[in-house]
Amino acid sequence: MRPGETAEQRLSEALRARALEVEPSPDALPRIRTRTAERHHRGWATIGAAAAAATAMAAGVAVFVPDRGAPPLPPAASSSADPPALLSREPGPPPPATPPAGGGPATVELPVYFTRNGKLYREFHALRLTADTDEGRIAAAVAESLHGDAYDPDYDTLWPGGVTVRGVSIDGGTVTVELGDVGAWPREETRPLAVQQLLYTVSAASTYTSVKKATRIRIVVDGGPAETPRQAPYADVLGPVWVIDPRYDERVGQRFTVHLAGVVFEGTVNLRIRGAGGKVVVEQVVHLSAGAPSLGEARVPVNLPPGRYTVEAFFVSVKDGSVQGVDDHDVTVG
């Protein structure tokens, strides 16, 4: 020990010398940032859960906040020019059609888009196919969308009731849809969204075929010239928050998964489930896999006793704290 040097000073010098000998890993900084972000994320989630629990206890409401949910899906790719309209239930090859036991047309579950309050919302429908081909699947999804046969009574279509799908043809990644009997074409002020309803349905349904992704969609109306409109970005046309599963009026088991999607700031949405008399039985902040302008998703496991419930999803305005973009589905448990 040097004259006048304390033990603490000597220890400090030894530690500094040892630190200079350490060679940091090339990925050290990214890993530190990731761990820091995860702690920050968990901290806010804990604060949100605690706040929800405190509010509910004051009101005499039971709150279900699971320790952890199912891992969210990877962020959906998005671009302002040509967003892929996906959101499939499970990744993988196109699901096979199910032939009925007594014979007749096969059925397959396909994504279908509808409209509500000037935005697009999507459901999965089990559709009968006249032929289980790529063209047949897309045609069935388009017909279901344009006729507006949604499960949720809040969803509708902007297309006239008599419209028919005369045919669908596929050339590589180009899908051409021929419509007939359009008659009163959608009103001028709603026409842009009506076209997007069609485009998003074709794009989503194509992921359930060997096409996988429609790179170009052409529309022929009543034998006129083919038009090639472009899909609008997610943030321009999709509902800000929506409940995918369980679907409206569906019967589920006591353990089920709520599948949410949305295009919201920082991917933060709220899940609320009401039981008899409107009593809140689940109140939870959910972080989607991506924030606006990308489309994010999340799956939240829930365990509830038998009964009738309303599953609500919404976001809270950063401007004034008001509840915005509510989408709700009534479901039966048990």
TrEMBL record:
UniProt domain GerMN: residue ranges: 138-230
Q: Does the keyword Membrane apply?
A: yes
Compositionally biased residues, Low complexity: 76-88
What residues form the membrane-spanning segments? 43-65
- Segment Disordered: which positions? 73-106
Per its UniProt record, what InterPro entries does this chain match? GerMN (IPR019606), Gmad2_Ig-like_dom (IPR018911)
Q: Which UniProt keywords apply?
A: Membrane, Transmembrane, Transmembrane helix
Q: What is this protein called?
A: GerMN domain-containing protein
Tell me the organism. Answer: Dactylosporangium roseum
